[in-house]
Amino acid sequence: MEAKMTQTLILLFHPDLSRSRANAALARAAQAVPGTDVIDMQARFPAGLDMARDGKAEAARLIAAERLVLQFPLHWYAPPPLVQSWQATVLTRMMYLLPDSEGACLAGKPFRLAITTGGAADAYRNGGRNLFPIPEMLAPLRATANRCGLAWSNPFVLHDADSLSEEQLEAAARTYAADLVAWQAASLPVLAEA
Ligand SMILES: Cc1cc2nc3c(=O)[nH]c(=O)nc-3n(C[C@H](O)[C@H](O)[C@H](O)COP(=O)(O)O)c2cc1C
């Protein structure tokens, strides 16, 4: 099955989007950005991904995207477990089983994380309430991106996600959409000179 071309692919990993405020608001705003596809991974893979059943199509989805976002709420200082299932299935296929025909297609592809946290920004600093800054919490994913040759950009981070008013949430969602537009413009595929 051929995946259709997507300019910006957002893989959204929320354990239950029907109970989400923050990620749901961000996803709605992102979906309205032209050329953006948001996939609710939990709805699509409620029991996790399976290499034989899902590997080929999900690899094709990544190859077809010009840039990739992984969006999720921080749970226990880490991504939700479905992210691990996706990595173990799709990235293992691409990088370990088919590095030349599939893995190489990730080289240079713009990549970023978009995360929400219940904790306040001030909690995420050395010696703060949550002990470590956000970049340290995200280090394994950054190393993974590096291993895959993905081009890392600074993550979009929404703190205090459980205590924002509707207005604050809508403002954050608008900022997210604007960020995506700016990132798209900054990472347009290079066209050959005429
Ligand atoms: C099981 C669980 C674990 C959580 N762990 C963290 C955490 O480690 N750090 C943090 O800042 N917030 C944590 N939170 C708060 C979530 O990050 C927050 O509820 C989420 O980002 C809000 O987004 P949503 O409205 O899309 O669910 C946790 C929430 C749950 C339910």
Could you explain the architecture of this structure?
- There is one protein chain.
- With 194 residues, this protein is α/β, with parallel strands linked by helices.
- Helix content is 41%, strand content 17%.
- It has helices at 22-31, 41-44, 51-64, 81-97, 134-137, 139-148, 166-186, and strands at residues 6-12, 36-40, 65-73, 110-116, 151-152, 156-158.
- Strands 1, 2, 3, 4, 5 and 6 form a six-stranded parallel beta sheet that branches.
- Helix 1 (22-31) links the parallel strand 1 (6-12) and strand 2.
- Helix 1 (22-31) crosses helix 7.
- The structure holds flavin mononucleotide.
Approximate shape: globular
Number of strands: 6
Named once each, the bound ligands are: flavin mononucleotide
C-alpha Rg, in Å?
17 Å
What's the SSE pattern? EHEHHEHEHHEEH
| Unreliable runs | none
What's the story with the biggest beta sheet?
A: 6 strands, parallel
Instruction: Give me the number of helical elements.
Output: 7
Report the β-strand fraction as a percent range: 15-25%
Short description:
With 194 residues, the protein is α/β, with parallel strands linked by helices. It has helices spanning 22-31, 41-44, 51-64, 81-97, 134-137, 139-148, 166-186, and strands spanning 6-12, 36-40, 65-73, 110-116, 151-152, 156-158. Helix 1 (22-31) crosses helix 7 and helix 3 packs across helix 4.
How are the SSEs placed, and which strands pair?
Layout: E1 6-12, H1 22-31, E2 36-40, H2 41-44, H3 51-64, E3 65-73, H4 81-97, E4 110-116, H5 134-137, H6 139-148, E5 151-152, E6 156-158, H7 166-186
Parallel strand pairs: 1-2, 1-3, 3-4, 4-5, 4-6
Helix pairs in contact: 1-7, 3-4
The chain binds flavin mononucleotide (FMN).
